[in-house]
Amino acid sequence: MSNHSSEDIVKVENLTKIFGSGKKAVKAVDNVTFSIKKGEIVSLVGQSGSGKTTVTRLILRLLKETKGKIIFEGQDITGLTGKEKKLYWKKVQAIFQDPYASFNIFSPVKKVLIDAFKLFDNSFTKQEKMAKVYEALESVNLRPEEVADKYPFELSGGQRQRIMIARAHLIKPKLLLADEPTSMIDANLRSGILELLLGLRDTEGTTIMFVTHDLGLAYYVSDRLFIMHEGKIVERGDANKVITQPEHPYTKQLMMDVPKLSEEWILK
Ligand SMILES: Nc1ncnc2c1ncn2[C@@H]1O[C@H](COP(=O)(O)OP(=O)(O)OP(=O)(O)O)[C@@H](O)[C@H]1O
User: Fold this and answer.
1) What percentage of the chain's residues is helix, strand, coil (to nearest 5)?
2) Residues 89-135 pLDDT 10s
3) Which backbone phi and psi does 66 adopt, to 5 degrees?
4) What pTM, to 2 d.p., does this model score?
5) Which of 21, 68, 130, 142 is the S-S candidate for 15 at Cβ 3.0 to 4.6 Å?
6) What is the ipTM of this complex?
7) Which of 15, 16, 19 to mutate to test the pocket of ligand 1 (most atoms within 8 A of CB)?
C-alpha cells in the first residue's frame, strides 16, 4: 500500500490547543507531535471529543494554537497572514464531515466547482474551466450533465462527498485532510468513496490524513495510524502492527468496537 517518499510534507510539533480559560478550560489537543511523509496515507483515529477535528482545523489555520509548531514543506506556517493562507489552501485542502458546511448551498454544483479556480492565478477561459469541472465530475463517477445544475441539497450525502473529491481533483492539493469523509453514507457506498480517495493519492500523489473514529476504516486505507485519546496520541505505527499488536488499552478498546474488522474490510 505504501508508495510514499521519505520526505516529510507536514510535521506537527508539541501542538496544544486549549479552549476557554479557568475552570471551563478544555485541553482539546495536548502536546501532540507527528509527521506525515509525502504520498503517505495516515489516519488519526479516536472517539468523539478526542481532539481529531481540532488538529485538522489547526493544520488548516482555521484555529490558532495555544502552543506548538506546524511545519509544512519545511516552513512553520503558524504565523501565516491572510494572503499567505490563500496560497497555503491551494496546497492543503480538507473534506469535512458535513459537506454542507463547506459548500455555498445557494450555488449549483458547477458554480461550487468553478469557484475552486479562485484559488489559482489562472487564465483559463470559462469554457476551459467548465471542461475541467466536467472531467473532475467524471473522475468521481458522477454524470456531469445530471448533477452540474443541481444544488447541493438536491444531492445525496454520498454525491456531495463525491463533489468534494471532484473539487480536490481540480485543486490538486499536496495534502488532503479528510475528516470522516464517509460518515454520511452507508457501508456499501463507503468503499467506493475510499477507492476514489486512494485513487487521488495514486494519480496525483496526494498525501492524505484521514480523521475517523472507525479503526476498521482507518486500517483499510492507511499506511500508518495515530490513535488519539483525550487530546494525546497514545499509540502510533504501521497500520498492520497497530491492528495486530495493539499496545495501549485504549487501542484495544477501539479494537473491540470493530469485531468484524477482518470480515468487513479484509475479505471484501
Ligand atoms: N470551539 C470550541 N470551543 C470550545 N471547546 C471546543 C471547541 N471545539 C472543540 N472543543 C472541545 O474540544 C474537545 C475536542 O473536540 P474535537 O472536535 O477536536 O474532537 P473530535 O475528536 O474531532 O470529535 P468528533 O469525532 O465528535 O468530531 C471536545 O471536548 C470539544 O468539546
Assistant:
1) 45, 25, 30
2) 989 998 875 555 556 667 899 998 998 888 877 788 999 999 999 99
3) -85, -35
4) 0.87
5) 68
6) 0.94
7) 19
Domains of the chain by range and CATH?
Answer: 8-266 (3.40.50.300)
| CA distance to 56, 97, 213, 230, per residue, from 50 (Å) | 12, 15, 9, 5
C-alpha of residue 53 to centroid of ligand 1, in Å: 7
The answer to whether 231 and 27 are in contact (CB under 8 A) is yes
Q: Which three cell numbers stand for residue 67?
A: 502552543
Calpha distance 197→237 (Å, rounded): 21
The conformational region for residue 230 under phi > 0 = left, psi -120 to 50 = alpha, else beta, is left
In this structure, the residue with its CA closest to atom 3 of ligand 1 is 19
Give just the sign of the alpha carbon dihedral 210, 161, 115, 168.
positive
Q: Which residues of 34-61 are buried (b: 16+ CB within 10 A; e: fewer)?
A: bebbbbbbbbbbbeeebbbbbbbbbbbb
